[in-house]
Amino acid sequence: MCVKIGQTTIQATSPTDAISNGRRRTTDLVVHLDTNVLLWLAQRRAKILGEQAFRLAAKHAWVISPAVILELEVLHEIRRIRVPPDRVLADASRVGDLAIARTPYADVVQAARALSWTRDPIDRLVTAAAIADGAKLLTADKTILTHFSDAVWD
């Protein structure tokens, strides 16, 4: 299955078989990436990741919430990142198995409503997407790490 975002087509992986950069990955578990982790992986700066986050990113397929794409767009519009979102997605998909979460929006919003520990709507949606998918979330965000037990860094 492919997901088209702007000018970029991203190959979504099957849950049982995936090959990335010539190596087979275990994809019965996927990990969600927050915006910063996606940017670092797209820039091939995986060494920035914490040890546990690095191990999970190396072993499992990557999923991002559509909210990550929205945040990339906003960051590009306000010039906090120079690279357009479609380029970030394309670069990341060349490095690893990247897919866009297909969790129903209503399920994500329902999970996000309970996350009163943050007022950042993007953080709520990104975290809620991982919750709704029953997945780990790779993030360096200290607030998310403190409040979401399936957030992973070190």
For the structure shown, list the relevant keywords.
single chain; 154 residues; alpha/beta; 19% strand; globular
**Number of H- or I-type helical stretches:** 7
What's the pLDDT, averaged over the residues?
Answer: 85
In CATH, what is the class? Alpha Beta
SSE pattern, N- to C-terminal: EEEEEHHEHHEHHEHE
What amount of the residues lies in strands?
15-25%
CATH topology: Rossmann fold
Quaternary form:
single chain
CATH architecture: 3-Layer(aba) Sandwich
Helix fraction by DSSP (H/I, runs of at least 4): 40-55%
Shape: globular
Q: How many discrete structural domains? A: 1
Radius of gyration: 14 Å
Number of strands: 9
Which residues form runs of ≥5 with pLDDT under 50?
Answer: 1-27
Q: What structural class do the secondary elements suggest?
A: alpha/beta
Distance between the termini: 32 Å
Main beta sheet: strand number and arrangement? Answer: 5 strands, parallel
Biggest sheet strand line-up: 7-6-5-8-9
Q: Report the CATH superfamily.
A: 5'-nuclease
